[in-house]
């Protein structure tokens, strides 16, 4: 039963019954107001909206407090209004106290916001204490309610069994802190259940997967399963892709081709460095593992695809065929005549590509076709470096398909894009003819197919055709002067003739021509 007046036995000996009631009411309002003002003052600007809840509680309590003076001598109604008044005022004080203790004191000590589950649990405990204090204040003993309703307590306990299990599991997870909001975790063997933690509360966590699907995982389930955290202890993660190579290719050659392809891939870390491992001997070929590290886990699938692309191009350039199981057998006959026709068509195509190189016009048709037959076709992926400034190479590159960018290193550092070359253009003639260091870096701007002529293939041509050295030296001198002008930001020097004479001597020495 609710009594007709508050029990204020602590104040009655000092103030008397009537004055004790008013002093208790006034003290509760003052304490709640002071705590509300302190929370409003000390909370960060972005968190001050949290004081709305205690402010509403305090306002509601004052409303019911005013009503107690309007009901006159109706004792029962007055007791109910006083109960609501005291409940709301104490709830306001309790809410403000939690804000000061958790969101101000704890946050400033730890320099990060407290877990939501601790904030909610602390607030719930404070509200329960407020309710018990209010019940005791109006003459109701909470212990008598619990002892007289044992059956009801058992029913409620069974109904809240799962909820309490999630609560206890959530507390354990927060104490151990295996993950935080923003971490990428996996809570199921299925790779589709990998996602970013977006919320942690007393009942469950919310995970946003890579498929942009929101998954709610109960805390009790997380407490029973192994959790993989891809964001701790660091955000650097090792990745692996596998590729098969033919048994005919030595492992060292395959390793070198793959290792060369791993440099400069966006997202692949240089430290720790990637490496290649021979894993097993499969039915179709030798299986190689390509290991590398990334620090952008959400982009892992895109980076894995880029690595596979680069490996394919590198193996193709090295003439290493990726084996695969054949399930269908096609039986057909290939005559020598058809094979010869295919070779002739390919030779004709290469010969047409070589027609784009102007200094080769002095060659006879027979010598031109012989040079085309000795050329090599290479494929490069977008972003790959074909030649690097400062490297030594003795190859000439003719663009059959795609586009390349010519990059120069400035004296103050950094690369500058000075030109773009498309199909029909060529580069690398200085390295082919003199063997000197590359004057510029050439990078594939798109997927490129290049026709490559090496030093050995060209030596016979220079020895057999008189006059080609002089024509080539003049062109090389002109191009070298243009590159020097761009690199140093100076006009062309006008010393093309002198440079051409020096190049004639260098070319003859390099190819050992008399």
Query: Approximately how much helix is present in the residues?
Result: 40-55%
| Broad CATH class of the largest domain | Mainly Beta
Which architecture of the largest domain would the CATH scheme give at its second level? Answer: Sandwich
For the secondary structure, the number of strands is 16
Characterize the biggest β-sheet: 5 strands, antiparallel
| Strand order in space, largest sheet | 4-3-2-1-5
Please give the structural blueprint.
Layout: H1 12-15, H2 17-42, H3 52-68, H4 75-110, H5 116-137, H6 142-147, H7 150-159, H8 161-176, E1 184-186, E2 194-200, E3 204-209, E4 214-218, H9 219-223, E5 228-229, E6 237-245, H10 251-261, E7 275-281, E8 286-294, H11 300-317, H12 336-354, H13 365-374, E9 376-380, E10 385-387, E11 395-401, E12 403-409, E13 415-422, E14 426-427, H14 429-434, E15 441-444, E16 448-454, H15 455-464, H16 468-488, H17 496-510
Antiparallel strand pairs: 1-2, 1-5, 2-3, 3-4, 6-8, 7-8, 9-16, 10-15, 11-14, 11-16, 12-13, 12-15
Helix pairs in contact: 2-3, 2-4, 3-4, 4-5, 10-11, 12-13, 16-17
Task: Offer a few descriptive terms.
single chain, SH3 type barrels, Alpha-Beta Plaits, 4 domains, 5-stranded antiparallel sheet, 17 helices, disordered N terminus
Could you give a short description of this structure?
It contains 17 helices and 16 strands.
């Amino acid at each position: 039963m609710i009594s007709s007046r508050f029990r204020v036995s602590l104040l009655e000996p000092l103030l008397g019954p009537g004055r004790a009631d008013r002093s208790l009411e006034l003290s509760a309002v003052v304490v709640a107001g002071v705590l509300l003002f302190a929370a409003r003052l000390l909370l960060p600007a972005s968190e001050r909206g949290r004081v709305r809840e205690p402010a509403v509680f305090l306002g509601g309590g004052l409303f019911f407090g005013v009503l107690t003076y309007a009901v006159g001598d109706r004792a029962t109604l007055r007791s109910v209004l006083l109960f609501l008044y005291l409940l709301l005022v104490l709830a306001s004080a309790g809410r403000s106290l939690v804000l000061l203790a958790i969101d101000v004191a704890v946050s400033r000590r730890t320099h990060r916001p407290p877990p939501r589950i601790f904030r909610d649990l602390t607030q719930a405990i404070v509200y329960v204490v407020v309710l018990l204090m209010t019940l005791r204040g109006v003459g109701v003993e909470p212990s008598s309610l619990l002892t007289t309703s044992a059956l009801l307590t058992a029913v409620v306990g069974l109904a809240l069994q799962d909820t309490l299990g999630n609560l206890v599991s959530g507390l354990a997870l927060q104490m151990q802190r295996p993950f935080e909001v923003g971490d990428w975790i996996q809570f199921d063997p299925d790779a589709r259940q990998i996602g970013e933690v977006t919320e942690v509360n007393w009942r469950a966590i919310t995970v946003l997967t890579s498929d942009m699907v929101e998954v709610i995982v109960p805390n009790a389930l997380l407490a029973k399963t192994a959790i993989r955290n891809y964001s701790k202890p660091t955000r650097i993660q090792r990745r692996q892709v596998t590729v098969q190579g033919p048994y005919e290719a030595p492992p060292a050659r395959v390793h070198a081709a793959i290792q060369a392809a791993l440099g400069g891939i966006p997202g692949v870390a240089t430290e720790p460095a990637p490496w290649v491992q021979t894993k097993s001997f499969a039915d179709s070929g030798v299986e190689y593992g390509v290991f590398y590290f990334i620090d952008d886990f959400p982009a892992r699938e895109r980076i894995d695809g880029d690595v596979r692309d680069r490996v394919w191009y590198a193996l193709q350039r090295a003439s290493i065929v990726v084996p695969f199981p054949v399930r269908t057998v096609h039986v057909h006959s290939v005559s020598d005549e058809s094979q010869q026709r295919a070779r002739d068509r390919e030779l004709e195509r290469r010969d047409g590509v070589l027609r784009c190189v102007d200094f080769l016009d002095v060659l006879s048709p027979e010598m031109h076709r012989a040079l085309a037959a000795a050329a090599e076709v290479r494929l490069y992926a977008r972003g790959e470096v074909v030649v690097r400034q400062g490297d030594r190479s003795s190859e000439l590159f003719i663009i059959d398909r795609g586009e390349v960018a010519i990059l120069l290193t400035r004296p103050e550092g950094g690369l500058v894009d000075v030109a773009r070359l498309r199909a029909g253009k060529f580069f690398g003639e200085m390295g082919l003819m003199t063997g000197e260091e590359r004057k510029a870096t050439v990078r594939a701007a798109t997927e490129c197919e290049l026709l490559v002529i090496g030093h050995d293939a060209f030596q016979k041509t220079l020895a057999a055709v008189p006059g080609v050295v002089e024509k080539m030296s003049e062109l090389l001198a002109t191009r070298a002067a243009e590159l020097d002008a761009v690199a140093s930001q100076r006009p062309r020097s006008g010393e093309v003739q002198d440079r051409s004479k020096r190049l004639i001597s260098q070319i003859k020495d390099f190819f050992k021509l008399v």
